[in-house]
Amino acid sequence: MDRRHALRTTLTALGVAAALTATAQAQNTTPFKIGFILPMTGQSASTGKQIEAAVKLWQAQNGTTVAGRKVEVILKDDAGVADTTRRIAQEMVVNDKVDVLAGFGLTPLALATAPIATQSKTPMVVTAAATSIITAQSPYIVRTSFTLPQATVPIADWAAKNGIKKVVTFVADYGPGLDAEKFFKSQFQLNGGQVIGEIRSPLRSPDFAPFLQKVADLKPDAVFCFLPSGQGAAFMKQFGERGLDKSGIKLIATGDVTDDDQLNDMGDVALGVVNSHHYSAAHPSATNKKFVQAFEAANKFRPNFMAVAGYDGMHVIYNAIAATKGAGGGDALLAAMKGQIFESPRGPILIDAQTRDIVQDIYIRKVERVNGQLYNVEFDVQKAVKDPAKTK
Ligand code: DHB
Fold first, then answer.
1. For residue 87, what pLDDT is reported?
2. Closest residue (by CA) to atom 10 of ligand 1?
3. What is the DSSP string of 355-390?
């Protein structure tokens, strides 16, 4: 009787173990899904194009299996419209059962998705949008791009140290522009400078001419400019057409304006523009040279700061999958994303465990012609810059 009972217990235990193994195997044969939502059409299409190319390069170089688990990328176009981003995110979470959401080409698109990440406990890796407050909108958000306060403070320091006393700020009228305006002004004033005008241009289909006329009338030493990726070339063209480049008013900017995606087509008007940012295709590290070479060979265009954030976003996600031994799970993945540190093509980066935002070097660069092409050539750096807008 006792022996029979013992046997039955053993058989039951074996059955449970077999069932558990089967479940584990079933889980591991389900692909790990990364749902990228990007603007592939519309005004911000270059952001989608750059990040898609970087994601493909990452997978070509690192494979599509991590810790024995197949990794599948699903990429959908939101055309830069927040309602569409939200709907796609919902579908990806509910129908596709994605393990991670990623992308978000503009601030309003990231803000629209944050509640879905929180409710579904899905890690949301922001590889583009750069308004400071984004990471505070959900404990499931991790950012691999940058923040505007982070990119802006170093150029305000540089301007004050280089004989610029009066500045007019000129920004796109939404989250990142307002961050840039505010942090430029406070840092520049702290250094003894004066902001004598603050101009905002609409995000959608802007005509810069009337605003540039105002800049000319105010006669500052310099105009500080932030515009999102994709608008820099049009701005530069009008800056030149209005003769501002010859008026003695210097142009300083965040590197969003002298964007590698468009820089080569901007022409002489861009030469000499000093700007601050976290990535240049001309960053002189071995890691970056390899990255740029492989990227250009695959795409016939140059990677910009959006591409590098997409590439690093994949790096963060792959590391997290490996850390969970392929098992995934929202909270486990998020824990594995916090505190990651590695060398990106831009330089060393850290995902701050408290804020889930990126800590990185910010470079001061000048647009120069190198071997017949225009590049942002780095000549100074502030190391390991945290987002200055975060209080903790
Ligand atoms: C944002 C978009 C950009 O293209 C950029 O260069 C910086 C910020 C944004 O919407 O957050």
1. 98
2. 106
3. T--EEEEEEEEEEEEETTEEEEEEEEEEEEE--TT-
